[in-house]
Structure formats: structure tokens, C-alpha cells
Amino acid sequence: MPSADKPAVLKGWDFGIKVTGHGEIDGFDQDGTRYAPADSHRLYTLALTGIDGEQIGTRSRDTALKVRIGQAERPLQEASSLAEGERRILLVSVPEAAETAELVLTEDDLTQTVSVITGAPDPSNPTVLAREDVTSGPMLRTGTLTYRVSSSATSLTLTKTAHYRLTSARLSYRHLVRQDEHAGQDSAFLFLTGTMKRTGKTRGLPPEWISLRLPDGTTRTAKTYSDHTNYRWLAIEVPADFTHGTLVFSGADRFPGTDNPHDVTLTVETEREERLTMVRKPAPDAGQGEQA
């Protein structure tokens, strides 16, 4: 069948599809048998490719994909199990007298449709302004930091060495833990994963020791986005078009844990920097949106 110049996208919370091709055929072969359209019917095909839904986690909004001819509907039960990138050919037999024949995705009170006859999305479908997550690609940065251990209760000061390990960076427009929280307009979240070994224990990266210097010289602070005591993931709010910057290890924080009666503080003595560059692969039609 002819490929679509611009794939139509039907996307819900649970799953979605792209219609990448469409056409009318005069029959098809299966298991050595030739099949033709039924009397007074026409046979249409749509090439479908599975795409991920909007969900993170397991919640469901009862997303459903159906074929609707006139007022009659038939659900496509297997659509919800279509994996990202998995392809299917949909064959639809349409009575010549039918005024409409549509592929329909429903979810709550939202309906998105594509014509089975023309392959075109309905003009009333919502426009999805795509903002695609970007990752740093394979990333492994390791290094050491010299830090000072001091206490307001005593005059004792110790100098020790910490070892950090950066494993990944991801630029996302939705919070990875608080699923319904999106970054502000013209902003994104930069999520960092890694570990820091200090005071004899390996924990997550301490946000008090990490900041990001942008190309314009301004600095953004890091925050933890995990609710766990031994946090392992950091979030830094950055401009939406962020491509590169410099991670800066500096600053001071209190001794990890709640049991710190002597007010022990850990302070980085020698600032260290790590250059960070994101590998950007623009989403299809990002910026002008894509028709859903």
C-alpha cells in the first residue's frame, strides 16, 4: 500500500498507534487462497505501527481502539498489546453504501479518528505538540573529590576522599516520579543518576555538592527527586533547548542521616567539573506539532 506522507497518530494514556500507510485493494492471498471483497463491499488496508502511550507506571484510562462503520463499532482487542515499533496490517471490509468508516481511539471523553476510506485524520482531532525526551547516550564518568569533615561541636577537622560515578543523564519534559508533573513552559528536567562513595558508604549523588553551569554562565542547583533516604537520582531544571553544560562539584552539606548530634559538615575542598553534552534526536514534527 502507499506510504503516508505524514503518519497519522492516535495516542492515548495506555497505548497508541501510527497509521503509516493506507490503500484500497481488490483482494489478498492467505494460505494459498485468494480472497476478494464481499458483494457490494470495498476492501481497505491500513498499516499500523505501535507506539508507547503517555503512561509511566501501571495506571489505566481504558484506552480502546475500534473500527466504526456508520454507527456500528467493532473493538480491536489486540491493539493494547501492540508493542512499540511492532507492525500490523488492518483489513477492513466497508459496505459501498456506508457514509463513514473510521479507525477510532477512545479514552475517557476524548475521541481520535482516522478515515478508513481516505487514511486522513479527522480535522477535529487534537494537535499533539511533541516534546521528546533526550538521553546522553552511554555515559560513565568517574572521579575523586577531596572534602573536609568538620564539626561545630569540636575543633577536629579531617580531610578525606570521595569517589563519584555518573551513569546516565536524561532530559525529560515530565517528572519521572511525580507522573502528572510537567516541566514549565520553555523548561525541562535534567535527571542524573549515579553514586557517591564517602564516609565509607556508597549512596546516591548528593544534590548539595552538585550544580550545573549553563553556557550563559548562570548556575542551576540540583534537587533530589527520590523520596528515599539514600537518594540516587537528581533533577535540575534547565531550558527546554538545553544541549550542553558543566556539572560542578562544590559546596557543603551535613553528614548523611538524621543522627548528627555534633553537626558534622562535609565540604568539598577542591572544586571539580564534568562536561555534559546531550545527544539530541528531534521528535518527528516537533515544534509544529503532529496531527493526532
Structural notes for this entry:
The protein has 292 residues and is an all-beta fold. It is built from no helices and 25 strands. The chain has strands spanning 3-11, 15-25, 28-30, 33-35, 41-52, 64-69, 72-75, 87-95, 101-107, 110-115, 127-128, 134-135, 141-151, 157-172, 187-198, 201-204, 210-213, 219-221, 223-224, 233-239, 244-249, 252-254, 264-268, 272-277, 290-291. Strands 12, 13, 14, 15, 16, 19, 20, 22 and 23 form a 9-stranded antiparallel beta sheet that branches. A 4-stranded antiparallel beta sheet has the order 1-2-5-8, with no helix packed on it. Strands 7-6-9-10 form a 4-stranded antiparallel beta sheet, with no helix packed on it. A hairpin with a 2-residue loop joins strand 6 and strand 7 (72-75). Residues 281-292 have low confidence and may be disordered.
Q: Please tell me how large the radius of gyration is.
A: 27 Å
* N-to-C SSE string, H for helix and E for strand: EEEEEEEEEEEEEEEEEEEEEEEEE
Total strand count, please?
25
Please mark out the parts with pLDDT under 50 across 5 or more consecutive residues, or reply none.
281-292
- Going by helix content, strand content and strand pairing, the class is mainly beta
* Alpha-carbon distance between the two ends: 21 Å
Give the CA-based shape: elongated
**Approximately how much helix is present in the residues?**
under 10%
The largest sheet is:
9 strands, antiparallel
Number of helices: 0
How large a portion of the residues is in β-strands, by DSSP E? over 45%
Overall average pLDDT: 83
